[in-house]
Write a structure and sequence with these properties.
The strands form 4 sheets. Strands 13-18-14-15-16-17 form a 6-stranded antiparallel sheet. A 5-stranded parallel sheet has the order 9-8-10-11-12. Strands 5-4-6-7 form a 4-stranded parallel sheet. The chain is of the alpha/beta class. The chain has 30 helices and 18 strands. Strand 10, helix 25 and strand 11 form a beta-alpha-beta unit. Helix 15 packs antiparallel against helix 16, helix 15 packs across helix 22 and helix 16 packs parallel to helix 20.
Length: 669
């Protein structure tokens, strides 16, 4: 007998609910994919204590109310918030002298959970269990761990004949209800908030036709088409969520409007992030609706927006700059876009970004450079696709116009985005691994960036001593070593590589400044394959590296969409997949850490690593740079734990990764 069946049987045997009430709870549980106990509490058919007493009877395990008694700080340290949320447990009591911990659990027969807890918690403590419903445990976590307010519920029984309006007022009210009142449907996950909003709307003369706890319930409201407006909680369901937009067309719904409870109650203006997302969402909606009958232009527009967003994110632009690029991309592909661009008042300076002819100052704006680079690439893709079918073609056809300064950085970032796209589509090919040795070889130097954008996995080490251990543990496909006069360590490194049977055929290039040209003969005599003098031409270097590696026996290329995080880090993977509106599961493994991220229709809905889940897990996984990744299509998704917009999550993740990297650099100093 399942858990729900046991609870249903006990409810009927004790007469706690009528058959009609139980059927109502079961129907709601089925509709919302909830356990029966959560449905009962949500519909306020029973309170926590009544439900707990039933569970006590079912499992023959004592029940103890959780909301009013706060656990000790010592006990909360033993069972932290992350552990309580992951296993849906709550600490009840800690016997210090007896070293015994009492824990509330929703299913005392779950031996697997008990065994996991026994392994996680200190072995010196014995465990005892009480029973409580999942809703009560989750509510207790909110109150005692997260600091939410607890208000003891007081029920007031009113006489059936009690009324707060006179018969005359009631008759007047009924007449008003039939005289063309505005009709709305409310999408609101919280029942209490829905009731409060319905009351306010009624006072203002607005009729509420129905309530949907989530987007999927909208299509089940029989008279949804009769509504004048759908009101959606913008804090719970953001305007850029694709499912809301899809349902708008599927169910032939009326106009959708978003409300923000906190701002309404506190009298605050919406944040820049909310306003920016709303503007871009509205413009995107209008442009897509206009292009519905022009699939080719629609595809080009979506690709343009996608690449502009990816390049902007990868370059770490400010939120306002990213929004400017994305908005300009939406507005640049149709007649409607041109009209909107002239009439929308924004702080972005869209005229400078969109105009073809500008003075030098306008052309220097990085937002403009990104937009017009991507547009040029798409133009060539349509007119002469053979010229840009691979990275070499893109570099040869477009690269000459982006040779120096900021324009060069924009171009190299775009090339990396294109390459990452190919990798995630399963067509990316690892060209080989390059080890660069030397204090003057910076990880963000032009040579390193160029090699990475060409598809090479690059590792930079400062000293020959560090390189020795790395080479023999993970032999690279080629070694580039810095050398200076009177420094014999690079010479020793080259000799060691040549003397080892496993690396004797590894190409070895020396790189020197002008004052080190006289070292060329000695370096070539001890076995170096080439000697390069700065400044090194990037095109010449990549050509030589490619030829040197291709002369050796190649390793099998990475298949599908599995690969190394050293080749494409977690942040880049998440950005590329999330902006592609795909349904995927990303698995990341690094130094014993294994986590998963679920992306549904381009929205990040869940992440988990260790005992963490939700945004905390997502931001931890975003920082991984070593290990392995796998991206697979996904059709079955876990319960949603992440509700922020994709853009906000990506930018916050990038900020946290940058902060962590800066901290690591300071510690190294």
């Amino acid at each position: 007998m399942t858990r729900n069946q046991e609870l249903k049987k006990c409810i009927l045997e004790t007469g706690r609910l009528t058959q009609e009430q139980l059927a109502q709870a079961e129907d709601y549980a089925l509709t919302m994919n909830l356990p029966l106990d959560e449905s009962i509490v949500f519909l306020q058919l029973m309170d926590y204590s009544e439900l707990g007493e039933l569970l006590e009877k079912i499992y023959n395990t004592p029940y103890s109310p959780l909301l009013e008694k706060r656990p000790s700080e010592e006990l909360k340290k033993i069972i932290p918030l992350s552990l309580a949320e992951k296993f849906t447990i709550f600490p009840v009591q800690y016997d210090v002298q007896g070293h015994a911990i009492t824990i509330a659990i929703d299913d005392p027969t779950d031996e697997d959970k008990k065994e996991q807890l026994a392994h996680i918690l200190p072995p010196s403590n014995s465990l005892a269990f009480t029973v409580a419903s999942r809703p009560e445990i989750n509510r207790a976590i909110d109150i005692h761990y997260k600091g939410k307010n607890y208000i003891h519920e007081i029920r007031v029984e009113l006489p059936k004949e009690f009324t707060i309006v006179t018969p005359k007022e009631e008759e007047t009210s009924q007449r008003k209800e039939t005289s063309g009142r505005k009709k709305v449907i409310i999408v609101e996950p919280d029942l209490g908030r829905f009731r409060a909003l319905k009351t306010l709307l009624t006072i203002e003369g607005v009729e509420t036709l129905g309530w949907a706890q989530g987007p999927e319930e909208l299509i089940k409201i029989s008279d949804a088409q009769n509504a004048d407006l759908v009101l959606v909680n913008g804090e719970a369901y953001r305007p850029d969520e694709s499912r809301i937009k899809e349902l708008h067309f599927e169910a032939d719904l009326p106009s959708i409007s978003y409300y923000y409870p906190r701002n309404m109650l506190l009298g605050r203006e919406p944040s820049y992030r909310v306003m920016g997302e709303a503007l871009i969402s509205l413009v995107g909606f209008l442009i897509k609706k206009t292009l519905k009958k022009d699939p080719l232009t629609m595809k080009r527009t979506l690709t343009l927006v996608r690449y502009c967003k990816l390049v902007s994110l990868k370059m770490g632009l400010l939120p306002a700059q990213i929004d400017a690029v994305v908005l300009a991309a939406w507005l640049s592909t149709s007649a409607l876009g041109s009209i909107l661009a002239k009439n929308i008042d924004t702080p972005y300076g869209l005229g400078e970004i969109l105009a073809k002819d500008l003075d030098e100052r306008g052309k220097q704006r990085i937002e403009r450079q990104i937009l017009w680079l991507v547009k040029e690439y798409l133009d060539i893709t349509e007119s002469h696709p053979e010229e840009v079918r691979d990275i070499d073609g893109i570099r040869k056809t477009i690269g000459p116009r982006y040779k120096t300064g900021q324009r060069r950085i924009v171009f190299e970032t775009f090339v990396q985005v294109i390459r990452d796209e190919g990798l995630l589509e399963g067509i990316g090919k690892e060209k080989g691994s390059v080890l660069i040795v030397g204090e003057t070889m910076e990880p963000d130097s032009e040579l390193v960036v160029r090699l990475k954008s060409e598809g090479y996995r690059v590792q930079v080490l400062e000293t020959s001593h560090q390189a020795i251990g790395y080479i023999f543990q993970s032999p690279p496909d080629i070694i580039l070593c810095d050398i200076a006069p009177y420094d014999k360590e690079p010479i020793k490194l080259c000799k060691a590589v040549r003397e080892n049977p496993d690396t004797s055929n590894t190409p070895f290039f020396f790189v020197a400044n002008k004052n080190g040209e006289h070292l060329a003969t000695e370096c070539l005599e001890i076995g170096a394959d080439d000697f390069l003098v700065r400044p090194v031409d990037p095109d010449l270097l990549t050509l030589k590296v490619g030829r040197a590696i291709s002369s050796r026996v190649q390793r099998p290329s990475t298949k599908g969409i599995e690969g190394s995080l050293a080749e494409m880090n977690a942040m880049d993977i998440i950005q590329s997949v999330a902006t592609g509106e795909k349904n995927v599961k990303i698995t990341l493994e690094s130094n014993g850490i294994k986590g998963r991220i679920f992306i549904k229709a381009g929205e990040i809905i869940h992440a988990e690593v260790g005992v963490l889940s939700g945004e905390k897990a997502l931001f931890q996984l975003m920082g991984l740079h070593e290990g392995q990744f796998q991206v697979v299509s996904c059709s079955s998704f876990p319960q949603r734990t992440i509700y922020g917009s994709t853009m906000s999550l990506l930018m916050e993740g990038a900020r946290l990764v940058d902060e962590a990297n800066a901290t690591d650099e300071m510690e190294d100093l």
